[in-house]
# Entry
Amino acid sequence: MDQERVSLLALHLTPGIGDFLVKQLVSYCGSAGQVFTTPKGKLLKIPGVGEISADAIKNGKTFQEAERELIKAEKNDTEVLFFTDKKYPHRLKAIDDAPAVLYYKGNQNLNVAKSVGIVGTRQATEYGKEVVEKICQELVPHKALIVSGLAYGIDINAHKCALKHGLATVGVMGSGMDIIYPAVHKDTAKKMVSQGGLITENHFGTKPDAHNFPARNRIIAGLCDALIVVEAAEKGGALITAEIANSYNKDVFAVPGNLGQTYSDGCNKLIKINKANVYTSVKDLEYIMNWSGETSGVQTTLDLQQFEPEEQKVIAILKERNAPVMIDELSFKSSLPPSLLASLLLTLEFKNAVKSLPGKMFTLK
# Structure
């Protein structure tokens, strides 16, 4: 068993060590394994580490639990994705409160070019279901990944419509991977594993307690490029997800509804207070997101000799990723200062080599 992976999971399972601090500790110490061998005095000098958390790290009681968890994951055909892994969703890497560890069961590349979240009320109307059907149907040319929360109503309809139209779909769960909630969605969840997947930050055996769902919503918001709220009351999980998506600088859309209808109130409010773009068809999404009707692909015929060395470095990173990359990650991977990188990216846009996307993301044309 890979000891560094055991150490990462053990660190994640250590009481009092949240997602942000896990990343902070690994960054300061160089690896998860080295976190546990670092003297307590040095741990206490790391921002965010206090006496209690330092003692919890030094006693190392979570190693056996981590080993058992990894064995369970293997038996359940579940991947444990750490924030240091290449397969970890790059959209989440740019978010401070993103999970340090994800459990993933499925066959879908989580770093696809286009990803759309669809959320809404658990009490979906026929109108809402029809809208979800139309959204998925119109997203087929984009081969977009459909992300939702596997809940009753709009969520499960989004997953079912994606499956129907051949789109990959990922469900973000508020429970452990071994507990599908609600249970009546087990058949759909099983189909999603072979045409998308299931994701959770919760360890095996975690029950679908109420407090897990607001946390789950931040993963839905973080995984998508654009979030569409189809139907929502004035208060509820869908509006929480929209609020989080806005805080992540994601593009939020809301389907307008009839005045006086309970499940139109939330969408109409988002539009009224300028926290969502109006969604009437996929053309609204294409316009705001600068998406063409064609699927994006990496340009493989670029003659690198026509570019400066630093431009070649940026192109190589984008080519290797084969998906949009945030400017912060480009700066980190290329070791280029943000100001210089911004100038290079603008030049590459003029040279028709790079395309700018919403959310300060870039991809090859």
Summary: The longest strand covers residues 101-106. The chain has three domains: 3-75, 106-289, 304-364. The chain has a mean pLDDT of 90.
